């Protein structure tokens, strides 16, 4: 959650603007669950800022087409079921790749 209201959404908007300007490129969002978990409607404790940031991400994803030559990838170590359904619907993050945790001897 950002210190100042609206900064998360502004950063998302600028990120996608830069990606368009510098394409071809890849946007990688680590721990997408930090802003992309299911919405509860609770706006206390930064919930409203998180929701504004998520809404901007959804809007930015919708505004992209294959013509921009930008690939957006996100990862999470949380369950895909914990993510907001709007985030993982077709046209946004619509492919999921599950990677098993490596065994101790494989690390």
UniProtKB/TrEMBL annotation:
SUPFAM superfamilies: P-loop containing nucleoside triphosphate hydrolases. Residues 4-100 form the ATPase AAA-type core domain. GO terms for biological process: proteolysis. InterPro entries: ATPase_AAA_core, P-loop_NTPase. GO terms for molecular function: ATP binding; ATP hydrolysis activity; ATP-dependent peptidase activity. It comes from the Eukaryota. This is ATPase AAA-type core domain-containing protein. The lineage of its organism: Eukaryota, Amoebozoa, Discosea, Flabellinia, Dactylopodida.
């Amino acid at each position: 959650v950002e210190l100042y209201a609206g900064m998360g959404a502004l950063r998302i908007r600028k990120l996608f603007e830069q990606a368009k300007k510098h394409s071809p490129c890849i946007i990688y969002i680590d721990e997408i669950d930090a802003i992309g978990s299911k919405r509860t409607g609770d706006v206390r404790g930064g919930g409203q800022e998180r929701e504004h940031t998520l809404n901007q991400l959804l809007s930015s994803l919708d505004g992209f087409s294959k013509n921009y030559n930008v690939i957006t990838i996100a990862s999470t170590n949380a369950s895909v079921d914990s993510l907001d359904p709007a985030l993982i619907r077709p046209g946004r993050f619509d492919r999921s790749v599950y990677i098993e945790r490596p065994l101790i001897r494989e690390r």
